[in-house]
From TrEMBL:
InterPro entries per record: NusB-like_sf, NusB_fam, NusB_RsmB_TIM44
Gene: nusB
Keywords on record: RNA-binding, Transcription, Transcription antitermination, Transcription regulation
Domain NusB/RsmB/TIM44 positions: 12-146
Keyword Cytoplasm: no
A molecular function GO annotation: RNA binding
Protein name per UniProt: Transcription antitermination protein NusB
UniProt organism field: Paracoccus homiensis
Family listed: Belongs to the NusB family.
Protein's GO biological process: DNA-templated transcription termination; transcription antitermination
GO CC field: cytosol
Superkingdom to which the source organism belongs: Bacteria
Length: 155
């Protein structure tokens, strides 16, 4: 088996972060508990169906921690990107977790905004392969990125 490349590790970290944020909300569990579970039982774990992908655990931790720390700011930015009649608390919980993970990455300049948007649109495509959600995610994240990182989009 070949060692996963950096991009694959980052993509897996983002997927796990979205799943962790979803689980935290759905089960009412703390970030520490969910991250510990993911490190122990999911990231790179051997299962009957095969091995779960390895992930950049530093990125995974940073996304989840930043999503929790900046949730209010991220949710407000996401609300501004959504139609006024559909605040973030009324959208699909998977999309909510995805927006929070993306918002966490957009809250810091470590990854270029356009890369963040592209990565999370890809994730939306994997979660919703037949739906219109990926286009919706692209549009909302474009607004969120311009709100949280206006310097990344020169006029």
């Amino acid at each position: 088996m070949t060692k996963p490349d950096r991009r694959a590790l980052s993509s897996a970290a983002r997927l796990y972060a979205v799943q962790a944020l979803f689980q935290m909300e759905a089960a009412g569990q703390s970030a520490d508990r969910v991250m510990r579970e993911f490190r122990t039982y999911r990231i790179g774990a051997e299962e009957e169906e095969g091995t779960q992908p390895e992930a950049d655990e530093t990125l995974f931790t940073r996304i989840v921690d930043d999503a929790v720390m900046w949730q209010s700011r991220i949710d407000r930015a996401t609300d501004r990107g959504l139609v006024a009649k559909w605040p973030i608390d009324r959208i699909d919980p998977v999309l909510r977790a995805l927006f929070r993970a993306a918002g966490a990455e957009l809250s810091t300049p470590k990854t270029p905004a356009k890369v963040v948007i592209t990565e999370y649109v890809r994730l939306a495509e994997s979660f919703f392969p037949e739906g219109r959600e990926p286009k919706f995610v692209n549009a909302v994240l474009d607004h969120v990125a311009r709100d949280l990182r206006p310097d990344a989009f020169p006029a």
